[in-house]
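User: Could you check the structure of this?
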Amino acid sequence: MDAAPLFFVIQALLSAFVSWIAATTTGIPVDSGKGDGYTLLVNSGHTRRGAEIIGILGAFWGLAGVSLLLGSAVYRLSLLAIDAFSYTLHWHHWLALAAIVLFMAYSEGYRAFQKGFSPRVVARARYLKLHPQPLHAALAPLFCMGFLHATKRRQITSISVTAGIIVLVLLVRLLPQPWRGIVDAGVVVGLMWGLISLGVFALRAFLAEEFLFSPEIP
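Assistant: Sure, the predicted structure tokens are below.
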């Protein structure tokens, strides 16, 4: 199942809910007074609680949205990878499969996700929880991936990487089976590594008092 329709349905529902909560605030940032790092949008009465809800929802939606996108890619590419095994594979196919899986596990899974993407996404989700803003919460997946309210360098990097991935996907589609499935098998391993590392970093970030990775906020 393609996650894109579900992603946009959730986005619309959450945006409406966040907007409803934000409607009770004045948009004036103040310190929470509890030493917890919160910057709240204060109006009166239960507004502080509303701001905390926005932060929690934003952080959850950011991590869930990114996970949904990665999970959808894993599902779709896994089907193509499995289909490759319905073809007759020779020794050079198996050799290429092993090489690509190992290469993607290291370059995509370890270097790109574990060392860069995953801790940054989690750091930005944690920042969103502690500094809730309605727009950032409504667009939390984009915020966590560094497209919104990020340093100029981070925004350029995020856009460049996304564009590169799109080009790579289009090129891989031109490959015939079983070669397309062999390449996709490597990509799936890297994406699965990314999903797991995202979950591990999320647990570390939200269960510990400190998280040492920078959210790269301007």
